[in-house]
Amino acid sequence: MNSSTICIVIAIVAYLAVLLWLGFRYSKSNESTGDFYLGGRKMGPLVTAMSAEASDMSSWLLMGLPGLAYLTGVCDPGWTAIGLGIGTYLNWLIVAKRLRHYTVIAGDSVTIPDFFENRFRDKTHLLLGISALIIVVFFVPYTASGFAACGKLFSSLFGWDYTVSMLVSAAVIILYTAMGGFKAASTTDFIQSIVMTIALIVVVIFGITQVGGISATFDYAASLEGYLSLTQMHDAATGSAVSYGGFLPILSTACWGLGYFGMPHILLRFMAIDDPKKLKLSRRVATIWVFIAMFVAIIIGIVGLSMVHTGVISAADDSERILIIIANKLSTYGIIPALIAGLCMAGILACTMSTCDSQLLAASSSVSENILKGVFGLKLSQKRSMLFARITLVIIAIIGVIMARDPNSSVFQIVSFAWAGFGGSFGAVMLCALFWRRANAWGAIAGMVGGGAMVFIWKFAIKPMGGLWGIYELLPAFLCSLLLIVVVSLLTPAPSKEITDEFDRVKALKD
What we know:
The protein has helices spanning about 5-25, 35-40, 45-70, 75-105, 110-120, 125-160, 160-210, 215-225, 245-255, 265-270, 280-310, 320-330, 335-375, 380-405, 410-435, 440-460, 475-490, 495-510; strands spanning about 230-235, 240-245. It is an all-alpha fold and about 500 residues long. Strands 1-2 form a two-stranded antiparallel sheet. α3 packs parallel to α11 and α5 (about 110-120) runs antiparallel to α6 (about 125-160). About 60% of the residues are buried. The mean pLDDT is about 85.
């Protein structure tokens, strides 16, 4: 092991040690499952903003997005980033404050399934059980993609066995999350967002200087047919441009932003802030960071391609490892650059861990709080509830580890499918729950089941037909869910006066 590798290892180990320390520190402040899963609603505005966006971006930001730009050009990642940026802003603007108020008034709901059941007064527990099951179904593979990203990182850097690398990374995530719960996850996510930002800035500056400046970087990209186009993609195999398909595919890609309205791990941040008045500051910080971070991530893909062209680095066998290859090159320039490169590698871990910890908490709360205690009526003391919550989290993580055994799995593809799953299942239901007085439990159930089913139907039965049918499954799933909510709600009895009065109380709140 040479000196540069040792410096990288030191930086990463120090970073992981901080995360474990935070997990241990916050383990003492979890006195109830409400503390464990929602931090007692005591989060500040900056932690709320940055933990939400760090948990949102995942390994997709530093691996999936640059890898896609490196491989095909700016069209696909560009429209995805535009949609996500707009979706981020709208989610903070129209959902955050009302959800914070509504979850308190509607039975002091701690989880998203709790909120749906309390909002619609569903005595059958169908909404609770179905929404909890959907969270588990889509979060387990989502978490697995994060574990896979960690395995790819260490195997690429040090030549370590992929499975061992993945297991070690997963163990760290499980430990600090199981110990510290939501407070540890949110605080570490805040730190991880800072590390991610440093990684993005360092890598893009280093890469641009290596190829001779911004002009040289973009001159080569511009010479490739379709690479810098927003209506075409570059086909590296043939060297020619390929049409993106016109307005509908562009719209469906930009509709990634619809997914935000149904992301449990992001919505929980809105619910956890201590003062709803501070959400305005959180919105500004989160939106600015997201737009800048995604723009820089796409630039990294372009920079990586120019670095390969000029011979600075070798071509990436796996496009999603391009940032790792650039950072590894940085480490060869001395001890200080190697330590900085180690921080960049920690940035990739930060992307992954900040999402995995939030997903593990959301999935374990769905099983322990919503399915076992809510649906099946399991009675537990606070102490046993905490123990059960931690055990559930570990079991779900183990399932994710098993699913992450394949080192060739695509981070972008897994995240894309899970994102569509949540957006299609929960997005329209959440919006109707917050803003449509006439929505009822049967409409919510129909929308949730129909939207979730459409994700699978479109992905595996309709999308393979190609052409106009080849659009991203989130858009048809969201529209299907919305249609079902409206139709079924109007065909079934109107909500009770108790429900509509509560809706009006929330609507009347200004702060």
